[in-house]
Amino acid sequence: MRSSNPVFSRRGFSRDNGYAGFNAAPQAGGPAVGTQGNPYAQQGGNPYAQNPYAQQDLQYGAPPQAPVSAGRMTMDDVVLRSAMTLGTVVVGAVLAWALLPVSSTSYGLAIGSALVAFVLAMVQSFKRKATPALIIGYAAFEGVFLGVLSEMYNSQWSGAPFQAVLGTMAVTGATLLVYKAGWIRVTARYARIGMTIAIAFVVVLAVNLLLVAFGVAPDGGLRSNGPLGAIVGILAILIGAFFLTLDFKQIEDGIAYGAPKDEAWLAAFGLTLTLVWIYVEMLRLVAIFSGDD
User: Fold this and answer.
1) Side-chain-side CA neighbours of residue 170 (13 Å)
2) What pLDDT sits at residue 213?
């Protein structure tokens, strides 16, 4: 089963090219130690194969340690690429907010930017390797969309974007805390159940969107500004937090199993997708709780 994020598919750390994690549920929730949990163990590209000490670690069940190599992904690589990608989103959003006044023209540009960002994200999702230009391009266009969207919300609910940013940071921090504390165990069963719920949720929202478009649910249906809309928004944020736990696990496994350095771009891409999802849902939720000001 492919993992995480609203697009529900993302290439990287795949078993096809000998790297752990982003594609396969067993890597999202499989054993973290031993040959059974290590995709290299039965691959020709196992970096531990020529390392008797690493093999000994696997034999005795110790957590595998990636060989020290400039070509292997580290947490610093993930942090740097994530900062670059998220920074591009922020810069795009700030420029769009500053240069594009709220108008029908800016709305059209925002929709166009969202469509371009979606296409770039889908292209990257189906590629076997990370393409930094695609990822940065996605981040730039996504930033333009978020900038116009945030300005629109701010014009009606003053301070909503700032509150949404704080809410996104709170959800991310809390999710990381419970993950690192071991309160959530990302197992294969956890991933399957969560992905089933997430896919069903998106399908229901797609049907709701069609009903709204054809006038069957003129008040927004599940996306109304009432209590039902708030419940749906909270569920969407919880699904975003679920995606974050998969991202954290897959990054952790990728580093432990010695994924190549370039895969840090995929980690950054996945985290950006998830954080954008949470921010947009948080923005809607803040607006609902702020009422019709």
Assistant:
1) 9
2) 83
pTM score: 0.79
Q: Is residue 285 exposed (0-12), middle (13-18) or buried (19+ Cβ within 10 Å)? A: buried
Average pLDDT over the chain reads 80
Name the amino acid, one letter, at 214: F
Q: Which residues pair with 260 in a beta bridge?
A: 72
Q: Name residues whose C-beta falls within 8 Å of residue 257's C-beta, 6 or more positions apart in sequence.
A: 19, 20, 21, 38, 39, 40, 64, 66
Residue 96 to residue 196: CA distance in whole angstroms: 36
pLDDT tens readout for residues 122-135: 999 998 889 999 99
Q: How many alpha carbons fall within 13 Å on the CB side of residue 256?
A: 23
Contact 274/86 with Cβ under 8 angstroms?
A: no
